[in-house]
Design goal:
Elements (H helix, E strand, L loop, with lengths): L14 H4 L3 E3 L6 E5 L6 E5 L2 H4 L2 E2 L2 H12 L11 H24 L2
Antiparallel strand pairs: 1-2, 2-3, 3-4
Bound molecules: zinc ion.
Zinc ion binds next to helix 3.
Length: 107
């Protein structure tokens, strides 16, 4: 049944294959290390900060996102740099896979 929950993607590529630029921190579950697009830098991203908007160590975030967030702005797309978006994509994929595994176990 295409699209059904039973459709187990056996050959689903690993998260490491899909997101070679993203690594989850070993100790902090909401922290990630995301490579810059040219691969020369790596930024720490913390997804839970600022009401789950996220925090990133890159300059764009520091100048374009952080000032508003530090004054209490609500989470929104324009306050997330590309590294935060990348880490969120990775984490959502991970959670979806785990949720599917859980649902299948309940059958
Ligand atoms: Zn960033």
């Amino acid at each position: 049944m295409p699209g059904g929950l039973n459709e187990q993607p056996l050959e689903c590529p690993s998260l490491e294959t899909i997101y070679p630029d993203v690594k989850q921190d070993q100790d902090e579950p909401f922290s990630f290390w995301v490579k810059s697009s040219d691969g020369r830098n790596e930024y720490k991203v913390q997804l839970h900060l600022y009401n789950f908007n996220g925090w990133c160590g890159c300059q764009n975030y520091e100048f374009a996102c952080w000032p508003e967030l530090s004054r209490g702005a609500k989470p929104e797309a324009k306050l997330k740099c590309k590294h935060i978006k990348r880490a969120r994509d990775y984490y959502l994929d991970k959670i979806l896979r785990e949720a599917q595994t859980q649902l299948q176990r309940q059958k």
